[in-house]
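Progress note, sequence design subtask.
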């Protein structure tokens, strides 16, 4: 793993005040998540079917744990667990990343931190969506690449 001096720094979106994850940061997060950082989610024991499905990695079930709940006054165990399960899905699913972004925007956090986290996951959702859609490099319009056709 690269040390702090060689790692690509996170980019800043000045308008939104958000720290956006650089490609290297995203790779480190994904590697951490797959090597045990998020593996503890699989170790959670649950009896309710919706929790079981979410723990197994079903993004729709994870979203269902969070959507429709009122925003808490403080972050307790139930909120922490449901958001952690959603987070594990948000690394690979654009819908889960979008719900995570919107939910974080309303959490009882310091306003600046709340805005940064929300914007970062919103950008991650866009990034996931572009990868999933098979985004290609834009084609050069005819006549601009030296071919006069």
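Output:
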């Amino acid at each position: 793993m690269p040390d702090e001096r060689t790692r690509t720094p996170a980019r800043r979106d000045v308008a939104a005040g958000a720290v956006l994850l650089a490609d290297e940061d995203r790779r480190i997060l994904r590697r951490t998540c797959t090597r045990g950082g998020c593996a503890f989610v699989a170790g959670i024991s649950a009896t309710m079917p919706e929790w079981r499905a979410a723990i197994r990695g079903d993004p729709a079930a994870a979203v269902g744990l969070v959507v429709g709940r009122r925003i808490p006054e403080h972050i307790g165990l139930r909120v922490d667990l449901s958001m952690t399960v959603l987070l594990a899905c948000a690394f690979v699913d654009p819908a889960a990343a979008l719900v995570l972004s919107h939910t974080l925007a309303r959490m009882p956090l310091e306003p600046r931190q709340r805005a940064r986290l929300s914007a970062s996951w919103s950008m991650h959702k866009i990034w996931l969506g572009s990868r999933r859609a098979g985004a290609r490099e834009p084609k050069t319009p005819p006549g601009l690449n030296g071919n006069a056709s």
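Confidence is low (pLDDT under 50) at residues 1-19, 138-145. Work on this subtask will continue into the next period as scheduled.
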